[in-house]
Amino acid sequence: MKTLAVMSRKGGAGKTTVAVNLALAARAAGVKAVLADADPLRSACEVLRERDEAAGLFFETSASKLFTLTEACRRSGADLLIIDTPAAPEADVAEAVKVADLCLAVSRPTYLDLAAAVRSVAIIQRLGREGMIVLNQCPAPRNGVEPPSVVKAFEALRFAGLPVTPVALRSRLIYQTAFAQMRSVLEIDKSGAASAEVRQLFDAVWRAISGEGRAPLRTANDDLRRPARAAGLTFVSAPA
Ligand SMILES: Nc1ncnc2c1ncn2[C@@H]1O[C@H](COP(=O)(O)OP(=O)(O)O)[C@@H](O)[C@H]1O
Ligand SMILES: [Mg+2]
Q: Who's near 184: CB < 8 A, 6+ residues apart?
């Protein structure tokens, strides 16, 4: 079993959105995924609790119980445990990082979110774990040109110390309407753009975490424009 900690030191970045959609995308791909809601706000539980398969899909937990829960999930035959973490306190976030094979830091393309992403990276590196950063709630391109906020975010993250996932999640209403129906975007609009980006994110995470046919994770010093281009991101100015 592999364990993924979805984290951000900033509320509202999209931890729960990413964690829930990834868990349900994993299941749709035939991966036995379970979700641990370690945030006392219990947003993931709020979304999932009325689902038919709720009992085997998610657990309410806390930082201090994460180690035990991880071992129990491993014994139960799960393939993937996804931990939805709180923004704070740092000690609780650290407990999730410690049990994770991979940490996924979620960041909006804003100054304060990027600053929080840098703090997440510091925790991941201090604890010697692997990690990736995903941009969420990115505004849509206009006339095929990437908004400056997204370009600047990719540029800033070149120096964050962890690779950025090739796919960025856009700001789309469907992420909100899906939760109102206790579902993932894949279950609402299988062939839509949101579903495509969630599937791509799951593929990137699953390759990285399972080590299946992947190149070693890139570091911030490598060329991060390549994944940006692969994601269809157009740089409007050359990086300094
Ligand atoms: N890509 C997105 N597009 C539109 N709304 C989003 C997106 N990601 C998150 N949201 C919305 O932003 C709010 C905060 O997201 P949430 O996942 O709860 O963040 P966190 O768990 O980091 O606090 C929620 O209302 C959620 O529906
Ligand atoms: Mg949350």
A: 20, 21, 24, 25, 28, 178, 198
Q: What is the DSSP letter of 142?
A: B
Nearest-angstrom CA–CA distance, 216 and 218: 6
Handedness of CA 63, 64, 67, 70 (dihedral sign): negative
Q: Report which DSSP code applies to 58.
A: E
Name the H helices within 89-192.
Answer: 90-99, 111-126, 148-157, 173-180, 185-188
C-beta 43 within 6 A of ligand 1: yes
Q: Please, what are the domains in the chain?
A: 2-220 (3.40.50.300)
How far is residue 82's CA from residue 46's CA, in Å, rounded to a whole number? 16
User: Could you read off the pLDDT of 163-192 as tens digits, one per residue?
Assistant: 999 899 999 999 999 999 999 999 999 999
| CB of 176 shorter than 6 A to ligand 1 | yes
Contact between 101 and 130 (Cβ < 8 Å): yes
pTM beyond 0.85, yes or no: yes
CB-based contact 57:49 (threshold 8 Å): no
Q: Is the C-beta atom of 11 inside 6 A of ligand 1?
A: yes
pLDDT value for 33: 98
CA-proximal residue: ligand 1, atom 25 (nearest): 176
Q: Separation of 56 CA from ligand 2 center, angstroms?
A: 20
Q: What is the pLDDT of residues 213-235, one digit of tens each?
A: 444 444 333 443 444 444 444 43
